[in-house]
Specification:
Blueprint: E1 10-13, E2 16-20, H1 24-29, H2 36-64, H3 67-70, H4 76-87, H5 103-127, H6 133-138, H7 142-170, H8 172-180, H9 208-211
Antiparallel strand pairs: 1-2
Helix pairs in contact: 2-5, 4-5, 5-7
Length: about 210
């Protein structure tokens, strides 16, 4: 709804356009043309949910110590490439997971926090370019702040699509575990219980009264 009013974003050079965000047919198919005010209203309403949710999540990771599990390490960049090869079925064996998340997850979940901060700052620069003129300067200019804001939006969409594909590949139980916080396992899938037994020589001596 918002970008219909000024659809300037495209991939190309000079007068040549390879891809335009978004084509006219896209807006017409979803009945989005000429609804800028409605789109802005939705945008500002969800902006508060987005920002508050992000602040709560960051504070939780700090005070709970979860940030130690999320913060990427130097070797994670190479390991993340191996995880990608495994997800693409190019590599058969899965790289070992150290901790709660694998290397690719640590990079992705940290990047999404940085992207969220970028969205809030670039959004403020676009919304109040006079009051936050210094922020526009830091981001390169008002026009460049708009580009940052738009590119980050595309990044969220890709992040969402990739996660949905991974959830589908992992199965319904994995998705249910993400929502509920625990996984339900069938009894036949559980490992066999280990029953401890003592050898006769380790048993205590039996008294005569007990034998009778």
């Amino acid at each position: 709804m918002i970008y219909w009013a000024n659809g300037v974003y495209r991939i190309g050079w000079g007068d040549q356009t390879l891809l335009k965000f978004f084509p006219k047919s896209f807006y017409e198919a979803l009945h989005l043309p000429h609804r800028l005010a409605e789109g802005m209203a939705y945008h500002f309403a969800f902006m508060w949910l987005f920002t508050v949710n992000g602040i709560v999540y960051v504070l939780y990771t700090i005070f709970s110590g979860e940030w130690r599990l999320l913060l990427p390490r130097a070797k994670d960049w190479g390991d993340a490439y191996q995880v990608l090869l495994h997800d693409l079925r190019i590599r058969k064996t899965q790289p070992p997971i150290e901790g709660k998340y694998n290397a690719a997850q640590r990079i992705a979940y940290t990047a999404i926090i940085v992207m969220g901060i970028g969205s809030v700052l670039s959004g403020l620069a676009i919304y109040k370019p006079v009051q936050f003129g210094w922020l526009c300067t830091i981001l390169g200019s008002y026009a460049f702040a708009r580009i940052i804001h738009f590119v980050l939006t595309i990044g969220y969409c890709l992040f969402f699509v990739i996660h949905i594909i991974q959830v589908i590949a992992a199965g319904w139980n994995n998705f249910r575990g993400m929502v509920a916080g625990f996984e339900v396992q069938k009894e036949e899938d559980l490992p066999e219980p280990v029953i401890a037994s003592a050898t006769p020589e380790l048993l205590p001596p039996i008294k005569e009264e007990e034998e009778q």
